[in-house]
Amino acid sequence: xxxxxxxxxxxxxxxxxxxxxxxxxxxxxxxxxxxxxxxxxxxxxxxxxxxxxxxxxxxxxxxxxxxxxxxxxxxxxxxxxxxxxxxxxxxxxxxxxxxxxxxxxxxxxxxxxxxxxxxxxxxxxxxxxxxxxxxxxxxxxxxxxxxxxxxxxxxxxxxxxxxxxxxxxxxxxxxxxxxxxxxxxxxxxxxxxxxxxxxxxxxxxxxxxxxxxxxxxxxxxxxxxxxxxxxxxxxxxxxxxxxxxxxxxxxxxxxxxxxxxxxxxxxxxxxxxxxxxxxxxxxxxxxxxxxxxxxxxxxxxxxxxxxxxxxxxxxxxxxxxxxxxxxxxxxxxxxxxxxxxxxxxxxx
Length: 348
Hints:
Layout: E1 4-10, E2 16-24, E3 27-32, E4 37-44, E5 50-52, H1 60-65, E6 73-74, E7 80-81, E8 85-88, E9 91-94, E10 103-104, E11 117-121, E12 125-132, E13 143-151, E14 155-164, E15 168-169, E16 173-174, E17 177-178, E18 192-194, E19 199-201, E20 214-215, E21 227-228, H2 230-233, H3 238-243, E22 247-251, E23 261-267, E24 273-279, E25 283-287, E26 310-315, E27 330-331, E28 337-347
Antiparallel strand pairs: 1-2, 2-3, 3-4, 4-5, 6-16, 7-10, 8-9, 11-12, 12-13, 13-14, 14-28, 15-27, 17-26, 18-21, 18-23, 19-20, 19-22, 22-25, 23-24, 24-28, 25-26
């Protein structure tokens, strides 16, 4: 069966933006060619009632105007790079800065701002493709990226793959925001988050990791036994004060793997909906929507206020190129980068 592909809108230069609707396994998903964006996810509650649990917008203009990277595929490097500088193979590179003194999510014109090509689509899967030229946002090498969105039995798989024609750095992720009560329904304070992470990476005033890998014990970042988000986000811990809430990397492991790891479970007690997140990456950036300010109006017609959704972003650790102990983002010709994400929806 073929996919349901419709025209979603037009970019300022006239480039059309398509929306691909996928259905299968009890859920329905909308994906945009703009930014490789997860625009909607309809999932059932304990009584079978469907709600759109992914934050998103109804028009191209709203996506281009809104902050927050809502739903987008992030690249070439997710998260922050201190001062926009990194060294690769003994050469220093300077990226444009777009987050105070730092580079964030690939730069001001990252992959979230590009129109991706549809390579193939069926009723339950779509592959998008983007070619990032050498020097794009300051990064070396021509990078070819694909993003596969695939529905299974109550699950959504997102697989990012990339190859390059010269050494570069890569760290791709999905920046979907979740509200399991339904987008536009209010804050995620009553959601419960569980994660096996025993450590996190503390940050400085610019939200750049200090280099320390610290235990979560006795901190607001200890979700090993599960916790109500509202009880953690609004505390007076100095790390929370720096970020206005949670905007921190949880350490699930110390290196990527081939096998998927369980990274987090998000649950909404009121609806019974749950989301289990699996990935082969070692870090999970948890962002509690601290900088949403009500200026953006979601698909429901309601403003997205602070805490309207939570982003769970599996990836390598922030600022890895400047912290050798964190690992390496290096991708060389002949190698393939692969980030596998599995989102499993349930209802209790």
